[in-house]
Amino acid sequence: MGVLSVTLDQWTDDEINSMIEVGGNSYANAIYEAFLPEGYHKPHPDSSQEERADFIRSKYESQEFLKPRLRIVSSNSSLEATYSRKHTVSNASHSASFNSEAGMVEFIGILKVKVIRGTKLAVRDLISSDPYVVLTLGQQKAKTSVVKRNLNPVWNEELKLSVPQQYGPLKLQVFDYDMLSKDDKMGEAEIDLQPMISAATAFGDADLLADMQIGKWLKSPDNALARDSPVNVVNGKVKQEVSLKLQNVESGEVDLELEWIPLNQ
């Protein structure tokens, strides 16, 4: 009989105590197995390695049995609430032998992105396009609806993404929807989140501040800004207006409004 070997992470005393406080493995199972289909049989000790591997992938990687609003990765929006600020994400390799490595991902806040409009977007059909926007932050993706036959679409749609402690740029892509073929690219851009998050962190609780500017992301040849992007406190909320000139395309701009919500709110 073969033995499946895994390498375990070292847990600190604080991490162990935190897990005990929330109920340990039984509590985790109550969350990750909350939506097991009726009649579904979990693997037992005599189950094959393949059956156990499939169950682990479904439970932790795909999060098929987790309440939808708690899923860390979603096609439309990301995690807004969970039982702890630390979440375990299992990434399963697809090699011949199944291995898993668990890592702790700590989220520091929620990013609301209001996708307002596009202007002078590129033509990808005969005389127009059917544009939609895709936002990507790490492994998370969110997208708007499709606006049919419009080069100056107005979406006014709000998307949400969780921001990890180690965050990178927010990536924006515009596509032309095609029913019978692959969607065509209509440009892309990246948004540096550091100016907004750093300003919000430095000034503290926005509810205690008057309406004011607390930061700015400056237009430069190294970014996709169409104009300088101020970070403001508006009615107790940290917001940033962003106008992007799409890259790798003949024309097009996209206007956004970002809002930062720290997890302690």
Automatic annotation (TrEMBL):
SUPFAM superfamilies: ArfGap/RecO-like zinc finger, C2 domain (Calcium/lipid-binding domain, CaLB). It comes from the Eukaryota. Coiled coil: none annotated. Keywords: Calcium, GTPase activation, Metal-binding, Zinc, Zinc-finger. Residues 92-206 form the C2 domain. InterPro entries: ARF_GAP_AGD11/12/13, ARFGAP/RecO, ArfGAP_dom, ArfGAP_dom_sf, C2_dom, C2_domain_sf. GO terms for molecular function: GTPase activator activity; phospholipid binding; zinc ion binding. This is C2 domain-containing protein. It comes from Panicum virgatum.
